[in-house]
Amino acid sequence: MRRAALVPLLAVAIATAARAQTIAITGGTVHPVSGPRIEGGTVLLRDGNIAAVGADVAIPDGATRVDATGRWVTPGLIHLRTTLGLRLLDSGGQEETQEDVAEGEVKAAFNVAEGLDPASMTIPVARMEGITSAVAAPSDGLMPGQAALIDLAGARVDEMLVKSPVAMLADLSEGGKESGGGSRAGAVLRLRRVLRDALEYAQRKEDFRRARIQPLAAAAEDLEALQPVLRGELPLFVIANRRNDIESALRIAREFKLRIALYGGVEAWQAAPALAAANVPVILEPLTDVPSFDGLGARLDNATLLREAGVSVVAAQSDAAHFRDLRQAAGNEVRNGMPWEEALQSVTLAAAEAALVGDRYGSLDTGKVANVVVWSGDPLELSSRVEHLFIRGRAVPLVSRQTELLERYRRLPPTY
Amino acid sequence: MLAGLGDPTYNGSHVMIHVPRYLVAPALAFLGACAVSRGAPTADSLSALRPQYPSTYARRAHPPVLIRNATILTAAGPELKSASILLADGKVAAVGEDAAAPPGATVVDGTGKFVTPGLIDTHSHLGVYSAPGTRSMSDGNERTEPVTAQVWAEHSFWPQDPQIPLAVAGGITVIQALPGSANLIGGRSATLRLIPARTVQEMKYPGAPYGLKMACGENPKSVHAEEGPATRMANVAGYRAAFAEAEKYRKEWDEYLEEPDGERPERDLNLETLAEVLRGRILVHNHCYRADEMAHMMDLGREFGFRIRSFHHAVEAYKVADMLARDSVASSVWSDWWGFKMESLDGIPQNAALLQQAGARAIIHSDSPNAIQRLNQEAAKAMYAGRHAGLQVTREQAIRWITANAAWALGIDSTTGTLEPGKAADVVVWSGDPFSVYSKAELVYNAGRLVFDRNDPKRQYRTDFNLGTSDPGVGR
């Protein structure tokens, strides 16, 4: 049913895009993120990429012009902690709409991508708040599995995928304790065992095949899936909030030479120097500061304190009912002390870099993927809205199931 | 049962439909004025007529406060530029003119700042679902049976919940603390001033009527699926059965109190609360998402002779905004929450603005220990979503969504919710436009008492729980 409802919208999106291969966004205040803002700048999109950015860009004949005078132009926002396309109804008892969980505790081989629903009605809603890319992440267990980075447009999964896997997940927070038999140290012990066995597996595959090896801590496919993590190629996103969990994550990263980022990082401000020294990005929640035993030191200026210490900060809003609030989260970073430019960076370039796609995403630079948003004003301010949105150089109509509901009920009674 | 009547200043005209003679008697008894006729039941003889867990709120004396040269959103009229407001003896003494500071007054320079009434959240579980969120502190849902009108949220409320000062730092001065939505009828709510206190009684808003939490839809029918209700139709049957019993109970008690020579009916705490709803003295707050279910609930009210005071969550209120306006039912809604369950699937960000357009009473509520800290931002999102859709919503209107309209839903609008002379000095000074993401509450006055000062750590209270933890409090 919901696929059927959305097909016309997507058809419109694709048809529009086909006519607009070269687009010149002119006259706006351009915030490339990678450099200073450009007043009255032009952003030229061609064949899905950014062809030029600057104050004096020659506009080719036949380019579609988008007048952004008085508007703000930024890279599309990147949301690094979502279940977009994986979950529609977030709460329990609605498994028909949930695709982010696999069985077991260590599920390194589980990649969410094939369960993604490109027609999910959550995607247009997120887009209308300027979000153009998102990490769709699995959940549950000590190692929930592999996350995928997607662009929020496309009718097929393979059209949406940017990078899959983009990260492996591990949970050293309260949520992972059960996998450790009920204690944090147990979870850390188990994670170490899995990583050690993955190393051993890589060296003794033949012994493993002939069953001439002690049983390992995970299935072969999971140990295989961990190899890129152990080579430092695939980041391990570690869910950790308490300071001692963060320090455990840092220790494990050192021991196994892993590239990690933190998911959550409620008390990361307390470990800021160590995080800066280890070059570990923190993907945190600027709208959450309620103390729990998973982080009694919660505070709203966590992001600011981390930036002041030189830690790379990425803003997220991982509660599924509020993915759309990403820019409000960034705005609140400013409210709580962060410079505006850094807050914008925390939902664009810093996110791209934490996902290891900073060479293609996150800023308005020539050659990067043309995910671009034209805003009516300051993108972090509640009074602003998205006026134009481009994904891979294609204009995406700003419509969703919600805009259709609005139009249906704008006048009462509705005319069904 | 007797909230308000113990307080001689209580003006319950906005709540009461009529006041039977017997209801006045206990108030008189409480005040020591023995005007009850011989033979009538009295507080001495009848627990039902004694004060029921009354408010012990005591306003703290404060020096007069003059806030000058600010932009004032009074929630009662047009925005005032470069205006002043004088707070004295817990009340708004003057607003608008550039009043002179009385002797001993604290003068606040409001240049570049905004002043609004204290924010009121009609839907909070602070204190009943306290932080840290352990199972042992989960005190909001008496899910042992589907109708539990006998439980009162205040008896779960923990005044040391560390979420309380966080909400105060967001400019909240009054909340309705509600039971959860597991039950068809979840119990009584409490309207509380957010102030440091040892007991919930010290926080209880004097004169505020009780609320009754009811819930439609998915929650009760899934929580109680085994023993029932397991369907929406059984939900409605459950409300009807409860109120049918309450109707009988009310009649028995009314007759007994009129003619106390007969046999005294047994006291039933569940039915006592429901009978008070039927008498119009307890206001119904109804968790209800879907438009069609709201219509059922309004019919339920007509069947038993009460009116829903406010729907809560009401994500589909915009579909029946005309009916809600006609029946004077308020809607306490989120700015834009949606999609976390089937009955929330049709939430749209223009909900509040469409209600406003239809002449219905819109309220932005939080239902969240995080969102309550930014209720102003939630109202802003709803206001701008409306404007972007071509619906005219002014700041003057939108500020009412989190102040005056909320006060009405709680039955306390005669004493707070707007900045008018004589109203409680529940006041927030904002660093800038409260509808901007960048603005913060700088000063929060609760009945004139400075309960939060962003620039003075000594005026940022910490609960007992905060002590000795790494919790940094709300200063930064």
Please provide a written account of the structure.
The complex is a heterodimer of chains A (416) and B (476). Chain A is of the alpha/beta class. Chain A has helices at residues 2-18, 122-127, 157-160, 184-203, 205-209, 220-225, 227-230, 243-256, 272-277, 302-308, 326-335, 340-345, 349-354, 401-409; strands at residues 22-30, 38-46, 49-54, 64-67, 72-75, 77-82, 131-136, 145-151, 161-171, 236-240, 260-264, 282-284, 313-315, 372-375, 386-391, 394-395. The model of chain A is unreliable at 1-20 (pLDDT under 50). With 476 residues, chain B is an alpha/beta fold. In chain B, strands 1, 2, 3, 4, 5, 15, 16 and 17 form an 8-stranded mixed beta sheet that branches. Chain B has a 6-stranded mixed beta sheet with strand order 8-10-11-12-13-14, with helices on both faces. Chains A and B meet through helix 11 and helix 14 of A and helix 9 of B.
Topology:
The complex is a heterodimer of chains A (416) and B (476).
Chain A: H1 2-18, E1 22-30, E2 38-46, E3 49-54, E4 64-67, E5 72-75, E6 77-82, H2 122-127, E7 131-136, E8 145-151, H3 157-160, E9 161-171, H4 184-203, H5 205-209, H6 220-225, H7 227-230, E10 236-240, H8 243-256, E11 260-264, H9 272-277, E12 282-284, H10 302-308, E13 313-315, H11 326-335, H12 340-345, H13 349-354, E14 372-375, E15 386-391, E16 394-395, H14 401-409
Parallel strand pairs in A: 1-4, 1-5, 6-7, 9-10, 10-11, 11-12, 12-13
Antiparallel strand pairs in A: 1-2, 2-3, 5-14, 7-8, 8-9, 14-15, 15-16
Helix pairs in contact in A: 4-8
Chain B: H1 21-30, E1 65-72, E2 80-88, E3 91-96, E4 106-109, E5 114-117, E6 119-124, H2 163-168, E7 172-177, E8 185-188, E9 190-193, E10 211-215, H3 218-223, H4 232-258, H5 269-278, E11 283-288, H6 291-304, E12 308-313, H7 321-326, E13 330-333, H8 351-357, E14 362-364, H9 375-388, H10 395-400, H11 404-410, E15 427-430, E16 441-446, E17 449-453
Parallel strand pairs in B: 1-4, 1-5, 6-7, 10-11, 11-12, 12-13, 13-14
Antiparallel strand pairs in B: 1-2, 2-3, 5-15, 7-9, 8-10, 15-16, 16-17
Helix pairs in contact in B: 4-5, 4-6, 8-9
